[in-house]
Amino acid sequence: MLSPLYQKMISGKSVIRELSEYATARGRQIGYENVFDFSLGNPSVPVPQAFTDACVRLLTEGDPHLVHGYSPTAGIPQVKDAIAASLNRRFGMNYTGADIFPAIGAAGALAHAFRLVCQPHDEIVTFAPYFSEYNPYVELADYKLTVVPADTKAFQIDFEKFAAIMNPNVTAILINTPNNPSGAVYTAETLTELARILTEKSQEYGHEIWLISDEPYREIVFDGKTCPYVSKFYANTISCYSFSKSLSIPGGRIGYVAVNPACGKSAMMVQMCGQISRGIGHNCPTALMQLAVAECVDLTADLSVYETNRNLLYEALTDLGFSVVKPDGTFYIFPQSLEEDAVAFCKKALAYDLVFVPGNGFACPGHFRMAYCIDTEKVERSIPALKKFVEAEYRN
Amino acid sequence: MLSPLYQKMISGKSVIRELSEYATARGRQIGYENVFDFSLGNPSVPVPQAFTDACVRLLTEGDPHLVHGYSPTAGIPQVKDAIAASLNRRFGMNYTGADIFPAIGAAGALAHAFRLVCQPHDEIVTFAPYFSEYNPYVELADYKLTVVPADTKAFQIDFEKFAAIMNPNVTAILINTPNNPSGAVYTAETLTELARILTEKSQEYGHEIWLISDEPYREIVFDGKTCPYVSKFYANTISCYSFSKSLSIPGGRIGYVAVNPACGKSAMMVQMCGQISRGIGHNCPTALMQLAVAECVDLTADLSVYETNRNLLYEALTDLGFSVVKPDGTFYIFPQSLEEDAVAFCKKALAYDLVFVPGNGFACPGHFRMAYCIDTEKVERSIPALKKFVEAEYRN
Q: What is the ipTM of this complex?
């Protein structure tokens, strides 16, 4: 008998995927360049030449045993060292290679992080709006995801609502800053207060509460700012990173888990990750990708286009009367919809070839997400369509 | 609190890894060329130039969206098609791309296969001798692994012992042919009889019994033979493949699940694999690796060295009086140890710088595994050491 669980899941199609499929089909009718597809968070900027060069050099001149052979379960030592050194240099941390576990993107990293600190039926708390894939990530591993309602004013943390939800079954807090879908970056104040509460609650409950920080957008921050490094604020932090967005290589499937050594057992936890891998069929990321990112660990693709697009859209949206929190990072913006039912709003937008994702899937109804990892030229062309949509549907 | 399960696992070190670490340490003392390290199944033959060329061409001339972008959850369509066409051509199957799910090596493929057809506490039956990693693969996913004792005469299947073990809780049978550690290849007769029993038992129990075929060594078969293609014998077969051994790229982490379309629901099962991925953080194999193997799908590395090594060792071992089944494939040989306690035997061998793995970990005590994926020159040099060991320890 086939697993009824997974059989049932295939009938429940993802809203984002349905919208993206609609956009592709519509593109076949009118040309994809005429569909203003803001549905998918697929990085659009070119991969840095240095990354391609590193891959080619490794393939043609590298040690074949290193490039093509099995890598150690806990990752290639020099890769781990390079990642640790970069984090130390950039964020003033004290990692060694032993604290780093290369993983298959942020999804692979999170799969390990949850299993490190949770046992079946434990509760993981996250904050709306949040990436909807957290549901299957957590629930299929047999943990429970509890969601704190959004602070829709600034997309920071509503600490009152957080306090109301906390309970002794909570073993981990899952945050995502810079945030998908809001584009918000948690401030140092937010992270300080979060750490204070977690320290207090750990003592109250008599067990550790781990902070799992999902940070694939860490490098995409605007206005010359940098993202406060979460792990600096709280010793029991597990950072989950992906190079997908910073190097524009989501197909590379490469990221890592970094355990804050201040927790006192980081090296053991990385060894535990190796054991977790055996149960989930993870093994290591592709050796070539490990070695190539190690050579590009301080680089990013030219991410400036995202800021340009953010500026264009924020201005256009506010001009048109949208209520919107200005994103400080990522390539998402998350305005309020012009009617309460964001699904209805997004459906109407389709008639103007504008493809948005309703906030409902991010546990934040009344909002919609625009992913602006697309050409600036297309963002510019979308603005008249947006204006036409708003005026025709909401100004009469 | 950290997971006690995974915490406990790190203290239980793998015997193979311990032996391999011993060999490495000893190598630092006397030069690794002087350690006859038969412990690790790490392919040693060069990667085909065509594979390297395909990677470089894709990186420098390929469509960046394809090479670096997210691939669809169920794999890149043209890659799936290429794999299906190759299997059809070579084994007379009727796969379409929809029946193929690219996975992160055989470990990733197996992780999906188990979850497709089992529910918690279901029983998976395998046959000794077997790859010891099956234990964590199965048990960490919350299924039960039941082992049929070995047919030590030929390392085929002892059907009497199999019949004694079968029961209605069994939902899957896991086989590995060509076999690690014995090197045996299941004959058409064995597979026909296995299929007959599974068909009969499915009817008797009133539920499907799935055959999960772990076949990373499928291409390494000697004496001009080919390995009978398991899925030809039984409709409800899920083949789990890895390119690690055939292309000598275990670091590439690329393989696939192929579901026999004769089962009537193969395309749905591949869609279910996409859902399983969400829970285990698997996502897709690296896009570059998917695309590169698709271009090399009918190629192998020059695997002839393994046959040369098999011949040398089989002759030397029989000359020295070992009782040994001649391997028809893989790069392993699995002789009886010269004393009942294979662990003691392997420990004594270390004094002669011969590193073997006792059969106990493969659920087949009284035997030891030699992995001869090493240079022929080293195999030749090992024979006098083997002779000296046997004569000094067992001939007086």
A: 0.95
